[in-house]
């Protein structure tokens, strides 16, 4: 019987050079060969019929084409208008486009981009992905997110030069009454699934596993510098010290504007341009933090109020991004490396969406109420006279 099974499976134990067959239990060997024979008889499909009909009944070729006729629904579905989607597609298509073969047709770049936006940046519920889109589109590989970052970062998050820093400082002085501010800096924990064999590296103070997004934001809620991937156990100050931006800031190798007198503060002499952060960051020449403690003099409370108005811009930017991209509303079921790629893509897409509104944030749909009555808010917070504020700022910078 054993020889008949071998013959049925297409094998000859003696001629194929398997002398161990003589010593193997015949029943176990018979079961193994029967299983192999059944596997050979099962017909496997190169492409499932459901997936072959995607050009007629797939979501991209049916629902999405109808959504393009309704701007509001399209923006709700993709977080992008049709014009923004088309412009983004034009930029990333050369990178994500695949070549057709004689065996099957490749997934088009527009469909691959649509899958990425829905998979990683919007809610995805109710049905499994293979019933909507083909898995051949790189479902589990965020390659499209990588392409989005690489193609957009040079235009929508360029490395700031001295003229860019001065423009940012002018924006903070005009909109948030904080002169010489180069940006607000803060960190955000991005929750991920527990990485294998990582111990407590990614375990943060909230009791979750995360990576850290450290960002510098300008007065228009645009990300100017981002560092992604620090271990969740790291504090904001520790993440800053370990990243390239933090080292450059500490060593003085950033191309920052030269020290200048403050407005109405020429008598104080040149004052450095600074970034603003919370208590988690160390005090440096180009990095300000609030005065510590609660029982502090009135003039220090006045300064902390000024700094708080400027610093909260980065927190608002995180909130705007989280509202736009629902991937931040749940745990990322990705490895830390892939999660970094998704976070990179969301930060650059955030800038891509807001770039046209950078000089008029009230038209972007996420305006801060403080931009409307900032003068009255300054009075209501007992911020004092401009001369006193300038004096306090200058004294703090010269500590």
Automatic annotation (TrEMBL):
Cofactor entry: a divalent metal cation
Gene Ontology molecular functions: hydrolase activity; metal ion binding; nuclease activity
Subcellular localization: Nucleus
Main location: nucleus
Keywords: Hydrolase, Metal-binding, Nuclease, Nucleus
Keyword Lyase: no
Keyword Lipid metabolism set for record: no
UniProt GO cellular component terms: nucleus
Residues of the DDE Tnp4 domain: 185-351
Membership in a protein family: Belongs to the HARBI1 family.
Protein name: Nuclease HARBI1
Lineage: Eukaryota, Metazoa, Chordata, Craniata, Vertebrata
């Amino acid at each position: 019987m054993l020889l008949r099974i071998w013959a049925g499976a297409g094998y000859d134990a003696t001629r194929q050079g398997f002398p161990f067959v003589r010593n193997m239990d015949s029943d176990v060997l018979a079961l193994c060969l029967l299983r192999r024979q059944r596997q050979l008889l099962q017909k496997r499909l190169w492409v499932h019929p459901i997936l072959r009909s995607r050009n007629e009944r797939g979501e991209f070729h049916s629902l999405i084409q109808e959504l393009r006729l309704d701007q509001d629904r399209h923006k709700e579905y993709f977080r992008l208008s049709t014009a923004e989607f088309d412009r983004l597609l034009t930029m990333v298509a050369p990178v994500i486009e695949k070549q057709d073969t004689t065996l099957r047709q490749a997934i088009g770049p527009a469909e691959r981009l649509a899958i990425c936006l829905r998979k990683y940046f919007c809610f995805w519920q109710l049905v499994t992905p293979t019933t909507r889109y083909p898995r051949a589109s790189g479902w589990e590989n965020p390659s499209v997110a990588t392409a989005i970052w690489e193609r957009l970062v040079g235009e929508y998050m360029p490395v700031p030069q001295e003229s860019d820093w001065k423009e940012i400082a002018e924006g903070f002085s005009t909109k948030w009454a904080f002169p010489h501010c180069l940006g607000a800096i803060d960190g955000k924990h991005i929750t991920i699934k527990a990485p294998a064999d990582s111990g407590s590296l990614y375990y943060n103070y909230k009791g979750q596993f995360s990576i850290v997004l450290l960002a510098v934001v300008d007065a228009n809620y645009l990300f100017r510098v981002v560092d992604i991937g620090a271990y969740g156990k790291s504090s904001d100050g520790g993440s800053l010290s370990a990243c390239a931006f933090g080292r450059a800031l500490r060593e003085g190798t950033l191309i920052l504007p030269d020290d200048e007198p403050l407005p109405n503060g020429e008598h104080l002499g040149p004052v450095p341009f600074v970034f603003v952060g919370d208590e988690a960051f160390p005090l440096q020449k180009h990095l300000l933090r609030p005065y510590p403690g609660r029982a502090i003099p009135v003039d220090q409370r006045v300064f902390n109020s000024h700094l708080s108005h400027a610093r909260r811009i980065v927190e608002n930017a995180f909130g705007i991004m989280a509202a736009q991209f629902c991937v931040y509303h749940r745990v990322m079921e990705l490895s830390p490396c892939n999660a970094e790629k998704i976070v990179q893509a969301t930060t650059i897409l955030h800038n891509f969406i807001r770039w046209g509104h950078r000089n008029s944030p009230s038209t972007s749909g996420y305006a801060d109420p403080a931009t409307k009555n900032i003068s009255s808010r300054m009075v209501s917070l007992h911020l004092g006279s401009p001369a006193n504020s300038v004096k306090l700022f200058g004294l703090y910078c010269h500590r």
